[in-house]
Amino acid sequence: MDGTILVADDDRTIRTVLTQALTRAGCKVHATSSLTTLMRWVEEGKGDLVISDVMMPDGNGLEALPKIGKMRPGLPVIVISAQNTIMTAIQAAEAEAYDYLPKPFDLPDLMKRSARALDMKRRAPTRVATPREGGDDLPLVGRTAAMQALYRLVARVMNTDLAVLITGESGTGKSLIARAIHDFSDRRTLPFVVAQASDLQGADGPSTLMTRAKGGSLVFDEVADYDDDTQARIVRLLDQMGEHSPRIMATSQSDLQSKMEAGEFRQDLFYRLGGVTLHVPALRERVDDIPLLADHFLARGERDFGAVRRLSNEARDLVRAYSWPGNVRQLENTLRRLMVTSAEAEIAKPEVEAVLGSQPAMEPLKGGGEGEKLSASVARHLKRYFDLHGGALPSPGVYQRILREVEAPLIEIALDATAGNQAKCADLLGINRNTLRKKITDLDIRVTRRRKLM
Questions:
Q1: 140, 86 Cβ separation under 8 angstroms
Q2: Could you give the CA distance from residue 309 to residue 280 in angstroms, rounded to a whole number?
């Protein structure tokens, strides 16, 4: 890399690590803990790239982006933030940040993004948009890779006209994703209409629905439950859309592709709705987000009930280990109940056990005993995967999908264990080194050992 990078973060450790890494990569670095100093450097013409935290002691990095864009059009800004919510990702996209990374971030990944930003610096100037206020209560919170990927995709598609299909289990937040896409898009001042099958009945049903949603967003809720006649009505409605048509979205907790292949869902409707598919992961698939969500809901409860509550360490461990079949909605309702029933500021483990004991699927995520064989553990997870399809079969190609899911983390862990030495890794795995290299490429595995920053 070649260029001057301005780093702004109130964490001295992050400033030091980034300064060292970027300097070793061939860049000049100016680092500060002050947003005021950063803005002065930008105004003076310093820097080819900015890497900035959001929450600074003297200001908000996101709110500074429009001013940076006016002073220095085309200066790329990479935003890093510990505020791991969809709002941060959307605001960063709206303000036309070059990129956004949640904390803790992957240092090699940030280095690659910085290199790309420097290479693209002389391209078209960045369009500036002011981030909007509000949305703090939106419970779309998560720092896991799956949620951050979802946030980025939402930010990219929200101002397109592509149809959006939002999939995920009940309680994961599909309707919240649809609402967020509308509320932070250019259509936010126009109607947001959620349609049920009954809204499409009758001769005037479809035309009335289009009039209600004119120019805004029209969401078909749980579209997999619509009968064939209603599906046909939607196809005709979509084919007749003209000027001032609404943005089309649909939600489904069923696998629409499997239903289509089984003849239970119209193929023509499937392809009309699936311009972009957003999958909202189940809570058990993002276990590391559970404590973060718990804290979020307890903070919300403090505002609603006027009582300060926190989970004891043992209670927090239990909440993290529970399977949460009702997903985020069940977690929120459980914590609100604990806010009311707990007499002490610290919610103890027995209180959580009492509440969870009255709810379904009290199944720890970390199943199996210490002596459980690997094959038994794998079998347990595979059975859960099949069970998630509710009696239907998964879509074809499951063999290769499962192999990839196992193979990629195995190679990544082996590379970490051998400090990235591919010869040692190949020997450890018992495969040819050329085979390992091919798999690293095919599976898009980073060969640089990861280092996480808080």
A1: yes
A2: 29
Residue 417 in tokens: 């264990």
Q: Give the residues across from 78 on adjacent strands.
A: 51, 99
CB 165 within 8 A of CB 278: yes
**Spatial separation of the C-alpha atoms in residues 251 and 249, rounded to whole Å:** 7
Mean pLDDT for 70-88 is: 80
3-state secondary structure the chain: CCCEEEEECCCHHHHHHHHHHHHHCCCEEEEECCHHHHHHHHHCCCCCEEEEECEECCEEHHHHHHHHHHHCCCCCEEEEECCCEHHHHHHHHHCCCCEEEECCEEHHHHHHHHHHHHHCCCCCCCCCCCCCCCCCCCCCECCCHHHHHHHHHHHHHCCCCCCEEEECCCCCCHHHHHHHHHHCCCCCCCCEEEECHHHHCCCCHHHHHHHHCCCCEEEECCHHHCCHHHHHHHHHHHHCCCCCCCEEEEEECCCHHHHHHCCCCCHHHHHHHCCEEEECCCHHHCHHHHHHHHHHHHHHHHHHHCCCCEECHHHHHHHHHCCCCCHHHHHHHHHHHHHHHCCCCEECHHHHHHHHCCCCCCCCCCCCCCCCCHHHHHHHHHHHHHHCCCCCCCCCCHHHHHHHHHHHHHHHHHHHHCCCCHHHHHHHHCCCHHHHHHHHHHCCCCCCCCCEEC
Q: How far apart, in whole angstroms, are the C-alpha atoms of residue 155 and residue 179? A: 13
Beta-bridged to residue 453, according to DSSP, are 105
Sorted by sequence, the CB contacts under 8 Å of residue 270 that are 6+ apart come out as 256, 257, 260
The 10s digit of each residue's pLDDT in 81-116 is 877 667 677 777 767 788 888 887 888 888 988 988
- The pLDDT of 246-260, averaged and rounded, is 90
Query: Which strand ranges, in their side-by-side order, compose the sheet holding 4-8?
Result: 28-32, 4-8, 49-53, 77-81, 99-102
CA distance 420 to 148: 26
Instruction: Report pLDDT digits (tens) over 341-350.
Output: 888 889 998 8
Instruction: List the end-to-end C-alpha distance of the chain, in Å, as a whole number.
Output: 25
Can you tell me which residue has the tokens 């064989």?
373
User: How far apart, in Å, are the Cα atoms of 234 and each of 60, 203, 205, 268?
Assistant: 45, 13, 11, 10
Rounded to whole angstroms, the Cα distance separating 120 from 389 reads: 44
